[in-house]
């Protein structure tokens, strides 16, 4: 085929792709989407913004945090919806949606309470939240985005990284150390401050003394620490969403990295963030008390991006050879070769992280009390002869898309985040009904799930 012929075919494929219409479906806990605040137990289509931005289609889904969802529109606008400013997370995190304030609504209900039809129309017409572009300080198209419990991070087409939300997750200074070259923490790279347990709300954090140091827990015996974590109450685990304190949130700002670093992908955990560069290096910042930043120690707060030594053979211990027969001796250079040359994919859980190398090796670090570092095959009859193409995890549920464009989910389902029409937990994968569309990607938020799908003719 001639060069011109190849270009023509490429242009035709691009035009065909542009003609396709993509939709986003949602299910699970997204307060403000419905007037009665009930969870969505089955897939519901997300309406595109009605302000003239990308009225044709969506580009991708990004999951979301506690009560709010994120997706990317056709031209690269970051679209958010879900929590309003008076519930769930601060509008600085999720975007300030909604048409009226709570007090105004209560007054209006009082005035028109005798007109039930008018009231019903008002609630249906105005109380549902409309997805809107998030006000980032850039016009560059967004290509990737992710959300943690109460913070967000995004990457632009020009490889710039923006982050906002919970203040401890927003970097406060430039890079001050390079761990690959044996550097150490300096200056304000670490903030010693009182921090809440994972998944604790910003508001509950605000009720504690701010700025005071706390005793480091590393000197406790491992069994004591494990016992303490096992006895967490349901309240601490936050099975119901908290209110937020706006004063503890930071507006969107650009993340300063070393000159020449180009970020292509990001991932957000409960209170930590990872960023992957175009040359396969991983940078991390935020809370590292469980080792989820992979820096070799359980440092509470890392206030600036640091290079994580994912492929440093010495960081995996002298006696831990990966993929070698028991009893064999593996040198550092052999181990490094087995691990790979660069990182090609990153992911964050609430308190742990995972990366995949170019050789297909999976590396995990962080909290593993519930087996997060102990992978096993999901052996379910419904997945027999199925090949997983996309996998995503929420706070306590998982979803996959197979190569035949089917969606399966399992796990905790209190808020309908499995999309199966009920709120019953599932230990085994179940198929999510998507008969009217062709799934292209799936992304789990904290307590909800988003699906990008091509509309059927």
Commentary on this structure:
With 457 residues, the chain is α+β, with helices and mostly antiparallel strands. The chain folds into 2 domains: 21-82 and 96-133 and 388-457, no CATH class; 164-309 and 340-366, no CATH class. The protein has 8 helices and 23 strands. It has helices at 3-19, 91-94, 102-111, 116-127, 202-206, 222-230, 234-237, 332-339, and strands spanning 22-28, 40-45, 58-64, 68-73, 78-82, 132-133, 142-147, 151-156, 161-166, 249-254, 263-268, 272-277, 282-287, 301-308, 343-348, 352-357, 362-366, 388-393, 397-402, 407-411, 426-432, 437-444, 448-455. The strands form 6 sheets. The protein has a 4-stranded antiparallel beta sheet with strand order 2-1-23-22, with no helix packed on it. A 4-stranded antiparallel beta sheet has the order 3-4-5-6, with no helix packed on it. Strand 8 and strand 9 form a beta hairpin. The longest helix is centred in the first third of the chain and has 17 residues, at 3-19. It starts with a helix and ends with a strand. The model is unreliable at 85-90, 98-128, 174-220, 225-244 and 314-329 (pLDDT under 50).
Annotate the secondary structure layout.
Elements: H1 3-19, E1 22-28, E2 40-45, E3 58-64, E4 68-73, E5 78-82, H2 91-94, H3 102-111, H4 116-127, E6 132-133, E7 142-147, E8 151-156, E9 161-166, H5 202-206, H6 222-230, H7 234-237, E10 249-254, E11 263-268, E12 272-277, E13 282-287, E14 301-308, H8 332-339, E15 343-348, E16 352-357, E17 362-366, E18 388-393, E19 397-402, E20 407-411, E21 426-432, E22 437-444, E23 448-455
Antiparallel strand pairs: 1-2, 1-23, 3-4, 4-5, 5-6, 7-8, 8-9, 9-10, 11-12, 12-13, 13-14, 15-16, 16-17, 18-19, 19-20, 20-21, 22-23
């Amino acid at each position: 085929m001639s060069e011109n012929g190849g270009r023509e075919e490429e242009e035709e494929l691009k035009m065909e792709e542009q003609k396709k219409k993509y939709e986003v479906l949602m299910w699970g806990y997204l307060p403000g989407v419905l007037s009665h605040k009930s969870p969505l137990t089955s897939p519901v289509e997300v309406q595109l913004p009605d302000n003239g931005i990308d009225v044709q289609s969506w580009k991708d889904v990004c999951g979301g945090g506690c009560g709010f969802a994120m997706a990317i529109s056709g031209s690269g606008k970051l679209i958010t919806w879900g929590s309003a400013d008076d519930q769930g997370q601060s509008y600085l995190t999720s975007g300030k949606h909604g048409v009226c304030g709570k007090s105004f609504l209560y007054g209006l209900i009082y005035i028109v309470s005798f007109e039930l039809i008018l009231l019903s129309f008002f609630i249906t017409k105005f109380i549902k939240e409309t997805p809107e572009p998030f006000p980032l300080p850039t016009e560059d198209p967004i290509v990737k985005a992710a959300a943690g419990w109460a913070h967000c991070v995004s990457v632009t087409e020009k490889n710039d990284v923006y982050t906002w939300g919970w203040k401890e997750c927003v970097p406060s200074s430039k890079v001050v150390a390079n761990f690959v070259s044996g550097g150490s923490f300096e200056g304000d790279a670490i903030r010693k401050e009182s921090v809440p347990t994972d998944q604790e709300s910003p508001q509950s954090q605000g009720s504690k003394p701010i700025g005071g140091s706390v005793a480091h827990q590393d000197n406790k015996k491992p069994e004591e620490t494990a016992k303490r974590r096992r006895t967490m109450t349901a309240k601490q685990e936050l099975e119901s969403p908290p209110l937020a304190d706006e004063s503890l949130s930071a507006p969107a700002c650009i993340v300063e990295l070393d000159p020449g670093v180009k970020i292509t992908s990001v991932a957000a955990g409960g209170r930590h963030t990872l960023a992957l560069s175009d040359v396969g290096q991983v940078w991390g910042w935020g809370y590292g008390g469980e080792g989820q930043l992979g820096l070799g120690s359980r440092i509470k707060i890392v206030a600036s991006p640091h290079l994580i030594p994912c492929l440093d053979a010495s960081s995996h211990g002298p006696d831990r050879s990966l993929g070698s027969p028991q009893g064999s001796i593996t040198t550092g250079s052999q181990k490094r070769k087995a691990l790979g040359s660069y990182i090609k994919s990153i992911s964050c859980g609430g308190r742990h992280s995972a990366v995949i190398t170019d050789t297909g090796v999976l590396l995990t670090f962080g909290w593993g009390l519930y087996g997060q570092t102990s992978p096993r095959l999901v052996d379910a009859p419904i997945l027999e002869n199925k090949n997983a193409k996309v996998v995503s995890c929420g706070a306590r549920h998982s979803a996959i898309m197979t190569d035949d464009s089917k969606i399966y989910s399992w796990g905790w389902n209190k808020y309908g985040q499995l999309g199966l029409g009920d709120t019953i937990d599932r230990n085994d994968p179940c198929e999510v009904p998507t008969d009217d569309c062709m799934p292209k990607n799936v992304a789990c938020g904290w307590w909800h799930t988003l699906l990008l799908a091509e509309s059927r003719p």
